[in-house]
């Protein structure tokens, strides 16, 4: 709606949104539109007026900050899903906000300011609120002391730690000379002892790692293995117990999903009503009732503050048109914008700054033409832009419309502009619209005297100080006082006096006019002749440029054909060399590695693709007969995406940066992880958001697509290098798809594969923790990895 922007209603919306307590309420206020149904507007205005009275009486408004809940409701609607702690915190905010809103509306109802009914709709899920309060801390963490099973497990952990300490101290005292220090340490959550490497053969146990110098080995003696295993199992029991508690709360929330959804709807509705009333309170405003005529007393523009001069704006029942005139900078446009903005606010149920006794009709549409709407893109002059706006206004206006026109008829010949203005005003009055026009044209001022349903009004001007007073004088037109305003703004006195002399003269010498017109005609003839010569020169240059372009296109075609021959020759030579190498290795009884064959085939495929693309471009260039090359963007993915480009993954929405391209795939850095994905899965971000290209990072598995996520990876039988490549791909896939846990089977063997796996996991920032599996689930032959929540691409 043009009126919303022209009247600066877009500055009111953020102020309303800042007074809301819910995310949905903020969105509703930022997209607030006038109510189109008079009955609904009356109900809305009545409720906002009641809330405003309650606020003025001193009842404190509710607070809170309720995040969006649609994702949580979606999870609860699917059986088997589990709410995390942050989801439960959001539900607690919802229920606490509901309680605050309930207290406000119940207090207003009890004191007689508010009608009964809304407070009753702000209750629900009280049992869930009690559960959340008892099980969640103020920081949104699980209150473990409220769960007896977790308290018991924590005591067990304390006891196990004490046993580990006693056992460690006993071992260290009995063999002090073979240990580096007299205290135990932790490695991967397990208590180990610092053995001097020279005494490796004297102690049984599991070696977890060595110091940087290699002189100290961190050993887990058999006496500590069982205690460490018990400690791990107890920690796992705590995690299982936490998940059980979360599942119980989720089930309780799922059982009252309907109540939660209805409660959210009611809170957002109450939040929007309160935001309107609180904004009105800040303006010292009121809800203006609906009347059969327009009558505003002491109305103030809400964006100008208390310093602005209050205005009285009145249209009698028989008045359809007010012609407002007066000095420049006298406040005519402010008057017009004040009326329009207050009418918009009133039709949105927002209190307005006006005195008691004011009322407004119901306008279904507000048409506005204010300011300079010149459009360079559409080659429109200021006057043309105004005509376009006036065309829409005259088509849509009816008896339920408020029309506001600023400086009607300006920007063109005064006589034609005046005639057009009167015809437009005639049409609007005949349609029954309420019209306010500001003007400097004398013809329109006369219109206010001579036409039925039209009145004049003027902005007052202090004749003594020669300055506007910003007050409205109804019933008579005002002068422009342009010469007085020019003097006040510092125009040279001699220019002002000459202007007065010109203004006082009734006619100008006809001879002087004819002489000036003759000189102007001679100048125009000279300009036309110069323009004709310039056209001839431009035509000649255009022909020469066309010939040069044809020569360059022919040269380009020849160069492309030469390049195609060279590529074809190089491709044939490369194929022969690769096939000869493969044949020689096979005749010698050897076997090529799959990765080398894959890379050779990729190189050949890349050269073949380059040859085919060059041939296609050459064909398109030849058939276009000099037309611009359309093959530059032959591949939407590669034409728009290159190394260093900022892109977004279509499936997950995660932003990243392209490191390199290979065939139809791209290696992309997504935050802390690096992935190889198909180009058709990417879309380019705006160029303003692109960064400098990162230093390329080489990954052993980066030339392959990310596999689907798996819950278990078996590396037995792999060499260490190949195993780490498979591990990297599986970890990437798990992180990208949000898999929380991954089991890695590496066996025990010599321990090299086990250590390599855990060293690699220790370097991945997405890994929260890793540990050996339970004895019955693989023990030291399997490592279980837990990933940080939210580390995935999605």
TrEMBL record:
E.C. no: 3.1.-.-, 3.6.4.-
Region Disordered, residue ranges: 613-651
GO biological process: mismatch repair; negative regulation of DNA recombination; rescue of stalled ribosome
Domain Smr: 713-788
Coiled coil regions, renumbered to chain: 514-565
Record keywords, A-Z: ATP-binding, Coiled coil, DNA-binding, Endonuclease, Hydrolase, Nuclease, Nucleotide-binding, RNA-binding, rRNA-binding
Pfam families per the UniProt record, alphabetical: MSSS, MutS_V, Smr
Family: Belongs to the DNA mismatch repair MutS family. MutS2 subfamily.
Known partners and oligomeric status: Homodimer. Binds to stalled ribosomes, contacting rRNA.
Purpose: Acts as a ribosome collision sensor, splitting the ribosome into its 2 subunits. Detects stalled/collided 70S ribosomes which it binds and splits by an ATP-hydrolysis driven conformational change. Acts upstream of the ribosome quality control system (RQC), a ribosome-associated complex that mediates the extraction of incompletely synthesized nascent chains from stalled ribosomes and their subsequent degradation. Probably generates substrates for RQC.
Protein's name according to its UniProt entry: Endonuclease MutS2
Gene that encodes it: mutS2
């Amino acid at each position: 709606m043009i009126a919303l922007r022209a009247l600066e209603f877009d500055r009111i919306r953020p102020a309303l949104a800042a007074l809301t307590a819910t995310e949905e309420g903020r969105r509703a206020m930022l997209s607030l539109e006038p109510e189109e149904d008079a009955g609904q507007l009356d109900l809305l205005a009545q409720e906002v007026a009641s809330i405003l009275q309650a606020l003025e009486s001193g009842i404190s408004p509710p607070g809170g900050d309720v995040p969006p809940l649609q994702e949580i409701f979606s999870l609860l609607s699917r059986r088997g899903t589990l709410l995390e702690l942050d989801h439960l915190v959001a539900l607690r905010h919802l229920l606490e906000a509901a309680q605050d809103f309930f207290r406000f509306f119940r207090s207003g109802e009890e004191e007689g300011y508010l009608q009964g009914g809304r407070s009753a709709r702000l209750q629900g899920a009280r049992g869930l609120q009690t559960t959340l309060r008892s099980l969640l801390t103020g920081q949104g963490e699980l209150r473990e002391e409220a769960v007896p099973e977790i308290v018991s497990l924590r005591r067990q952990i304390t006891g196990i730690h004490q046993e580990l300490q006693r056992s460690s101290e006993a071992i260290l005292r009995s063999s002090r000379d073979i240990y580096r220090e007299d205290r135990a340490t932790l490695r991967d959550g397990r208590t180990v002892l610092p053995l001097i490497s020279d005494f490796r053969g004297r102690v049984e146990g599991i070696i977890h790692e060595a110091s940087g110098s290699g002189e100290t080995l961190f050993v887990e003696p058999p006496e500590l293995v069982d205690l460490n295993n018990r400690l791990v199992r107890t920690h796992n029991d705590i995690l299982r117990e936490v998940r059980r508690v979360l599942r119980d709360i989720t089930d309780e929330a799922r059982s009252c999903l309907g109540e939660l959804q209805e409660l959210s709807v009611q809170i957002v509705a109450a939040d929007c009503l309160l935001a309107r009333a609180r904004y009105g309170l800040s303006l010292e405003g009121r809800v203006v009732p609906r009347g059969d005529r327009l009558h505003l007393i002491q109305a103030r523009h809400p964006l100008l503050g208390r310093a602005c001069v209050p205005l009285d704006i009145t249209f009698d029942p028989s008045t359809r048109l007010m012609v407002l005139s007066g000095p420049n900078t006298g406040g005519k446009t402010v008057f017009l914008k004040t009326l329009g903005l207050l009418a918009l606010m009133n039709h949105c149920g927002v209190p307005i700054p006006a005195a008691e006794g004011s009322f407004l009709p119901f306008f279904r549409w507000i048409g506005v033409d204010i300011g300079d709407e010149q459009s360079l893109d559409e080659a429109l002059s200021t006057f043309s832009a105004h005509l376009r706006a006036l065309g829409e206004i005259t088509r849509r206006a009816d008896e339920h419309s408020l029309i506001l026109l600023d400086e009607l008829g300006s920007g063109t010949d005064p006589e034609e502009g005046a005639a057009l203005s009167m015809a437009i005003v005639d049409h609007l009055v005949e349609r029954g619209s309420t019209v306010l026009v500001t003007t400097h044209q004398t013809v329109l001022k006369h219109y206010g005297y001579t036409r039925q349903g039209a009145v004049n009004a003027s902005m007052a001007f202090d004749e003594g100080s020669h300055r506007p007073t910003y007050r409205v004088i109804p019933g008579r037109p005002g002068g422009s006082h342009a010469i007085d305003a020019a003097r006040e703004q510092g125009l040279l006195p001699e220019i002002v006096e000459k202007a007065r002399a010109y203004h006082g003269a009734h006619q100008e010498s006809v001879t002087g006019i004819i002489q000036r017109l003759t000189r102007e005609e001679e100048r125009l003839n000279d300009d036309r002749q110069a323009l004709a010569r310039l056209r001839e020169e431009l035509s000649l240059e255009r022909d020469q440029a066309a010939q040069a372009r044809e020569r360059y296109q022919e040269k380009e075609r020849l160069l492309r054909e030469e390049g195609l021959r060279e590529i074809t020759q190089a491709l044939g030579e490369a194929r022969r060399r690769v096939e000869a190498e493969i044949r020689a290795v096979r005749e010698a009884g050897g076997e090529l590695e799959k990765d080398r064959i894959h890379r050779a085939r990729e190189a050949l495929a890349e050269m073949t693709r380059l040859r085919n693309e060059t041939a296609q471009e050459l064909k398109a260039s030849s058939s276009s007969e000099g037309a611009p090359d359309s093959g530059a963007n032959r591949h939407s993915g590669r034409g728009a995406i290159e190394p260093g480009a900022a892109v977004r993954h279509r499936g997950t929405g995660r932003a990243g940066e392209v490191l390199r391209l290979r065939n139809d795939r791209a290696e992309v850095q997504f935050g802390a992880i690096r992935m190889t994905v198909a180009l058709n899965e990417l879309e380019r971000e705006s160029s303003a958001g692109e960064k400098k290209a990162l230093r390329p990072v080489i990954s052993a598995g980066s030339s392959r697509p990310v596999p689907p996520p798996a819950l278990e990876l078996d590396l037995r039988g792999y060499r260490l290098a190949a195993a780490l490549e498979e591990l990297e791909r599986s970890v990437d896939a798990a992180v990208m798809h949000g898999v929380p846990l991954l089991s890695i089977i590496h066996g025990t063997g010599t321990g090299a594969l086990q250590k390599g796996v855990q060293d690699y996991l220790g370097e991945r920032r997405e890994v929260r923790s890793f540990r050996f599996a339970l004895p019955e689930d693989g023990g030291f032959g399997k490592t279980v990895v837990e990933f940080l929540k939210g580390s995935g691409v999605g």
